[in-house]
Design brief:
The protein is of the alpha/beta class. It is built from 19 helices and 28 strands. Helices cover about 30% and strands about 20% of the residues. The relative contact order is 0.10. The chain binds beta-D-glucopyranose (BGC).
């Protein structure tokens, strides 16, 4: 290969360089000053799919590429390709890794048939600030839950052997993209390396241990240097410490942004910095394509780095089988045979059912009898826009709205919109009140439109829009049971709403079959079983709020309300408690934790511990419990979180039965990062806490000995 050909492999193009199956350079693309020859040398492209289209582009490309090295097709397949599953945050709420694995497997099956080789997923960025719009793409605020879901997702996408029905998984965004200051998109991230290693690094590590073949850099700064130019992050941590051998790709134009960040003088400098940091593929900034050739002529080390990056990309193409069959067996027939299969649509529905979180159910108003006269109200009631962001191949026009499914499930349904997401028409409001007046129960579908979740959708006020709150006040004034179903890609502040609602169900953005899933929950065909993967705050000022905060020198006791001392870590105008804690979610069954015991009270550092818990179902309905086990180290080298999830089990608890749930805990779960940034298991006293959410816990003590 010539140096130019190698540099070509390092270039990722956007979809607009290919039109009608051929390479083109028109309109805004001319600004990059690259030739058609460069396009036919580029190693990869993003955002193109469809068997017919991909075949045509690959064929034309191979006819022009001197060495006949196939083009790699990448895309964001985040929660489904055409069968759309609930958004990743909702999948986090399932606390069910087998569901996540299956979702990724089906997504890979469909996407690979559509010609995609690599998906830019999963996003495993730990998130704690719901102002940030991309919390919808993560599994939430907990490092362990994130790690479990990261592993499941990578394994689901890639399968055991990366067959033609799999895609390679690109884990993103390395690193700590989920911690932008003030929740503002693309903003500075400034966390200590200690904290980074304690809480943010584990999920990326798990994804890499699960053999993810690619990693994407993040847009943000970390430890003072943008990730895309951060040698410590990429060389020392990612490559050396985590032993990542795969392809490192920049995020969209992130190499170009090094100039804007002010760490590179120009694009040529940016190209050198990114290459030195170990970035193999330049996603659409054209820095590599335009400038690396000059650096390579002057510097043998640059050529060496180009060789290493090229080799990694060619190895990826080889693993994907592109040298045997550059089309990976795609055809329109195969595509037709696998897209939106009824059984996979049913799985999307089951995933949605498992993900929805019931936050309130006063007087057991839910489930509803099928003969109940329903007033269905709200901006989210009659729209197919419930797929969520990053579902570019999903079709809202073909997606059933909640209203239409409810009409199948209930005998009397009357609908009035009442308000838009952000606007209120007095006539519509009046009609909604009239319709509600004639009903037994009001079901209001509220929330945020899907365009207000995902990338570049940071929000400074997480209350429901005022128009919808006005609608709720009017409906609540009718003094009828008011059930609120909320479409959201993030925690919202529901403090006022909670007082007016009889029941609250978080439906997230539930995907292709979300309407059927909600109806099944409302009519009791299915009992809700989702648990919050992120804390729901009481007020904006509490943000960021998360369950596993560190202990302070002046902690409050169980609840700030009980603490009369002024000089404590608390607010003077707000409780420290969230409105709904991490891990919380109601079911229709009556589930209780009956007992918790440890098989021993003292263990050695290389021992295992059994924690035996019993969960009782004292109702006539089957239920699902997510039994959660948390740990707290009493004395450590560094401060320790008040509690930290170390394992959970999602279990069926049949009606009127008690089930035993056993945790087999290895002391490796007690590892903490010391002040010298090393991982260690300390001897000493530990609290072991078990419960059905992160707040209501039964505590036992354990001594770990040397
Ligand atoms: C996002 C990435 C995504 C990429 C390609 C960027 O703006 O941050 O998550 O994979 O675009 O679509």
């Amino acid at each position: 290969m010539t140096v130019e050909e190698k540099i070509g492999q390092l270039l990722q193009l956007s979809a607009d360089f290919f039109d009608d199956g051929k390479a083109v350079i028109t309109g805004p693309m001319t600004q990059h000053k690259i030739s058609l020859e460069t396009v036919y040398n580029a190693g990869s492209v993003l955002g193109i799919s469809g068997a017919k289209k991909v075949r045509r582009i690959q064929k034309d490309y191979l006819e022009h590429n001197r060495l006949k090295i196939p083009l790699l097709f990448m895309a964001d397949i985040v929660h489904g390709y055409q069968t759309i599953f609930p958004i990743p945050l909702a999948l986090g709420a399932t606390f069910d890794s087998s569901t996540v694995k299956e979702v990724s497997k089906i997504s890979a099956l469909e996407a690979s048939a559509g010609g995609i080789h690599v998906t830019f997923a999963p996003m495993v960025d730990l998130v704690r600030d719901p102002r940030w719009g991309r919390v919808m793409e993560s599994a939430g605020e907990d490092p362990y839950l994130n790690s479990v879901m990261a592993e499941a997702s990578v394994k689901g996408f890639q399968g055991d052997h990366l067959s033609l029905e799999n895609v390679a998984s690109c884990v993103k965004h390395f690193a700590a993209y989920g911690a932008p200051e003030a929740g503002r998109e693309y903003n500075t991230v400034d966390i200590s390396e200690w904290r980074f290693r304690e809480q943010y690094l584990p999920a990326y590590t798990k994804a890499i241990e699960s053999q993810a073949l690619l990693v994407m850099t993040s847009f943000n700064v970390l430890f003072g240097v943008p990730a895309t130019a951060n040698r410590h992050l990429m060389r020392d941590i990612l490559r050396q410490e985590l032993k990542f051998k795969g392809v490192l790709i920049s995020d969209w134009d992130a190499i170009g942004e090094l100039v804007v960040h002010g760490v590179a003088g120009d694009l040529r400098h940016a190209a050198d910095l990114a290459l030195e940091a170990g970035v193999d593929i330049d996603m659409v900034s054209f820095a590599y394509a335009q400038y690396l050739i000059h650096s390579a002529k002057l510097n043998r080390k640059t050529e060496q780095l180009i060789n290493e990056a090229t080799l990694r990309i060619l190895e990826l193409k080889d693993k994907l089988g592109l040298f045997e069959d550059p089309y990976r067996g795609i055809s329109e027939e195969r595509e037709f045979a696998v897209l939106k299969l009824p059984e996979n649509m049913t799985k999307a529905q089951h995933a949605a059912e498992k993900s929805m979180v019931l936050l309130k159910n006063q007087d057991n108003i839910l489930p509803l009898n099928k003969h109940t006269k329903l007033a269905v109200i709200g901006p989210a009631a009659n729209t197919g826009e419930i797929l969520g962001s990053w579902s570019w191949q999903g079709n809202p026009d073909e997606t059933e709205p909640y209203l239409s499914a409810l009409l199948r499930h209930f005998e009397y349904v009357n609908y009035a919109k009442g308000s838009g997401y952000h606007n209120l028409d007095p006539e519509e409001l009046k009609k909604a009140v009239e319709v509600s007046y004639r009903a037994d129960v009001i079901v209001a579908f509220l929330g945020l439109p899907q365009s207000e979740s995902g990338e570049a959708t940071s929000i400074s006020d997480l209350h429901l829009p005022i128009e919808q709150r006005k609608l709720v006040s009017k409906l609540a004034a009718l003094n009828k049971p008011l059930i609120i179903v909320i479409n959201t890609g993030r925690p919202l502040i529901l403090t006022d709403l909670e007082k007016m609602a009889t029941a609250i169900l978080i439906s997230w953005f539930p995907g292709s079959r979300g309407a059927e899933a909600v109806s099944n929950i409302l009519d009791g065909t299915v009992s809700p079983s989702g648990k919050l993967p992120m804390t729901f705050p009481r007020s904006m000022g509490q943000i960021p709020i998360y369950y596993n905060s560190y202990i302070t020198g002046r902690p409050i006791s169980e609840s700030s309300a009980n603490d009369s001392n002024h000089y404590l870590s608390k607010y003077i105008d707000e409780s420290n408690d969230p409105l709904y804690p991490f891990g919380f979610g109601l079911t229709y069954a009556n589930l209780n934790l009956k007992s918790v015991s440890l098989d021993k009270n003292q263990i050695y550092r290389d021992d295992n511990l059994k924690i035996i818990s019993k969960v009782e179902n004292s109702s006539n309905r089957d239920g699902v419990a997510v039994v959660q086990c948390y740990v707290h180290q009493e004395i450590g080298d560094t401060v320790r979180p008040i509690k930290q999830l170390i394992e959970f089990h999602r279990v069926n608890v049949p009606a009127n039965k008690t089930v035993t749930v056993t945790f087999n805990i290895s002391t490796r779960k007690f590892v903490s990062i010391h002040a010298d940034l090393r991982k260690k298991i300390d001897s000493g006293k530990y609290k072991i806490m078990v419960g059905l959410d992160s707040q209501d816990l039964t505590t036992r003590y354990l001594f770990v000995k040397n």
